[in-house]
């Protein structure tokens, strides 16, 4: 089972993959110049990787959850995704902070998308761990 995760931001979209439903691997982020361009770039990657599941990060529980959910749902609606791809949402709260902490000392805080894709891998790893804990109960 192949899984792709998105960390949808206003400037960049972080991407991570799991080719085996066990590990989360960050890949190159997409620079967002406009909504349609970003949706087209993400759609191209989705069609190339051909995931079974698309995990989308969404901040849950905060005061802006409804607004962010609306924005992210709108962005998802712009994607060209096969009907067979299951879309699931995963709480992304703190994932960017966690990604920055993981990269401390290794990378200066460049705005090249590495942090965004590491955040996507954190989101994906959380989702994978949740699935594995459900299976063992």
Question: What features would you highlight for this structure?
Answer:
137 residues, Nucleotidyltransferase, domain 5, alpha/beta
Describe the protein.
This protein has helices at residues 35-49, 65-78, 95-103, 114-136; strands at residues 3-8, 12-18, 25-31, 53-58, 86-91. The chain has a 5-stranded mixed β-sheet with strand order 3-2-1-4-5, with helices on both faces. The radius of gyration is 14 Å and the shape is globular. α3 (95-103) packs across α4 (114-136). α2 links the parallel β4 and β5. The protein has 4 helices and 5 strands. The protein has one domain (3-136): YqgF/RNase H-like domain (Nucleotidyltransferase, domain 5). It has 137 residues and is of the alpha/beta class. 34% of the residues are buried. Helices cover 45% and strands 23% of the residues. The two termini are 21 Å apart.
Oligomer: single chain
Radius of gyration: 14 Å
Helix tally equals: 4
CATH topology: Nucleotidyltransferase, domain 5
Sheet-strand content, in percent, reads: 15-25%
C-alpha geometry: globular
SSE topology:
Elements: E1 3-8, E2 12-18, E3 25-31, H1 35-49, E4 53-58, H2 65-78, E5 86-91, H3 95-103, H4 114-136
Parallel strand pairs: 1-4, 4-5
Antiparallel strand pairs: 1-2, 2-3
Helix pairs in contact: 3-4
Question: Concise description?
Answer:
The protein is of the alpha/beta class and 137 residues long. It contains four helices and five strands, in the order βββαβαβαα.
């Amino acid at each position: 089972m192949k899984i792709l995760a998105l960390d949808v931001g206003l400037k960049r979209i972080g991407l991570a993959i799991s080719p085996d439903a066990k590990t989360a691997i960050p890949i190159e982020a997409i620079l967002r110049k406009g909504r349609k361009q970003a949706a087209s770039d993400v759609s191209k990657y989705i069609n190339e990787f051909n995931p079974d599941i698309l995990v989308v990060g969404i901040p849950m529980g905060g005061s802006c959850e409804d607004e962010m959910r609306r924005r992210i749902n709108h962005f998802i609606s712009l994607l060209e995704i096969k009907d067979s791809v299951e879309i699931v949402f995963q709480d992304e709260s703190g994932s960017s902070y966690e990604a920055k902490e993981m990269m401390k000392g290794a990378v200066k805080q460049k705005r090249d998308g590495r942090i965004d894709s590491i955040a996507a891998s954190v989101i994906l790893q959380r989702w994978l761990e949740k699935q594995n804990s459900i299976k063992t109960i």
